[in-house]
Design goal:
The chain is mostly helical. It has 15 helices and no strands.
Length: 290
């Protein structure tokens, strides 16, 4: 079996090399696109390793010698970096868990239950996916200000309980593809609808659950506008703190510290994706349009 797998792998590699040789224009195009995608990250790392003097010079320095690794230390000591990181982690985790569960519950209803007006409500759900979030931001702020929730994390809890239209759609597509025989057998055994959801559908939904949680978590972690509008500076998230906390005595931004803090800021997201990438990809591949 190992020999057969090795032969198959060698054959696939040979076919890839033949395609690469026969399409030099495609290779050049993909190389240019890859360089353009990597260039901003490379510039961010270079900026994070520069001293203030190297940043202020008119001559661009591609790689500072020696690199100023102390910028990463200053990035976490110049302001309470880990306090804001903890705020972001707490808010992202709470929102991710609640959004994952309640979106699954609504998606299960759309996929497996029957009732009057279900198709109409699903159409409303799809139409909500077309509305940009920035359009409803100001009315949402006025609503939360009127009921006294500005400056707290409760808006994110309420949003999570309401679910996300796109994530509900993903769940609905996934649940619609599961065989109905499992449902019928559980019903004959006396299992309730909620019991079927918890005991059958949730255990079978690991790929889509991981996918939804990653999307929810990263969406809140990377959000800047909403925390900046609804939270105070003492309980705000790391995304907001990065843009306002690193300034010199004259009030000008310290770009090298901002770059260093930004690199530290994305590390948790990279770790989350590394551990969840297999289920993340499988979740999208098994929730296609049916």
């Amino acid at each position: 079996m190992t020999t057969t797998r090795a032969i198959t792998t060698a054959g696939a590699s040979s076919r890839i090399r033949d395609r690469v040789r026969s399409r030099p224009g495609l290779v050049i195009t993909l190389t240019i696109i890859s360089v353009l995608l990597v260039l901003p990250i490379a510039l961010l790392i270079i900026t994070a390793l520069k001293t203030p003097e190297q940043l202020s010079t008119t001559d661009f320095i591609w790689f500072p010698i020696p690199p100023a690794f102390e910028n990463f230390v200053l990035a976490v000591t110049e302001q309470p970096f880990f306090v804001y990181a903890a705020n972001s982690f707490f808010l992202s985790s709470i929102s991710g868990v609640l959004t994952t569960f309640f979106s699954a519950l609504v998606g299960y209803g759309f996929a497996r239950l029957r009732g009057p007006g279900k198709n109409f409500l699903f159409g409303v759900l799809i139409s909500m996916m077309l509305v940009p979030g920035i359009v409803t931001l100001i009315p949402t702020y006025l609503l939360f200000a009127r009921i006294g929730l500005v400056g707290t994390y409760w808006p994110w809890v309420l949003w999570a309980i309401a679910g996300s239209p796109f994530l509900i759609f993903l769940y609905r597509q996934f649940f619609a593809g599961l065989p109905r025989e499992l449902e019928e057998a559980a019903t004959l055994d006396g299992c309730s609808r909620f019991g079927i959801f918890m005991r059958i559908f949730i255990p079978m939904s690991k790929p889509i659950i991981v996918t939804v949680f990653v999307l929810s978590f990263t969406g809140v972690w990377g959000d800047f506008i909403t925390p900046n509008l609804l939270l105070n500076y003492d309980n705000t998230t790391l995304a907001v703190a990065l843009t306002t906390g690193y300034v010199n005595d004259q009030g000008f931004p310290l770009n090298n510290l901002i770059a260093a803090a930004s690199i530290l800021y994305v590390i948790p997201m990279i770790i989350v994706f590394i551990f969840a990438q297999r289920s993340y990809v499988a979740g999208f591949s098994t929730s296609g349009i049916k």
